[in-house]
Design brief:
Blueprint: H1 4-21, E1 30-31, E2 33-36, E3 41-42, E4 50-57, E5 68-72, E6 76-83, E7 94-96, E8 105-110
Antiparallel strand pairs: 1-8, 2-4, 3-4, 4-6, 5-8, 6-7
Length: 111
């Protein structure tokens, strides 16, 4: 009986904080921002344009519990205009694009 009481107290002491830590993933849907990837795909003929991917995420860095993960609108590709960008006039060294017109949203969910 003497050994059983400390073990029960230890289980309660350790188990309660672990159970409460799993519940810290607010399900609120937040408006995010599109960020362009630095790499892009250019057509062999610069006048045909280029293609760049955009990633959706929070506008500012967000800290959250290790039991949560960030879920966001899937990445989207955008067609843009090639420019020489200081290189050979017949090449595509820069891809000028605008962010996708689709809404970018993110939220936290349980891992």
């Amino acid at each position: 009986m003497r050994i059983q009481l400390p073990i029960t107290a230890l289980i309660l002491f350790i188990g309660v904080p672990l159970a409460s830590a799993r519940a810290d993933c607010p399900p609120d849907v937040n408006r995010g921002a599109w960020s362009p990837e630095s790499n892009f795909t250019a057509n062999p003929i610069p006048s045909l344009g280029c293609y760049r991917m955009y990633i959706c995420g929070p506008e500012q860095q967000v800290m959250y519990d290790a039991n949560c993960r960030l879920a966001a609108t899937p990445p989207l590709g955008v067609t843009g205009v090639c420019t020489a960008g200081g290189g050979d006039i017949s090449s595509c060294n820069a891809c000028l694009t605008n962010p996708p017109s689709d809404t970018c949203q993110w939220h936290l969910e349980q891992r």
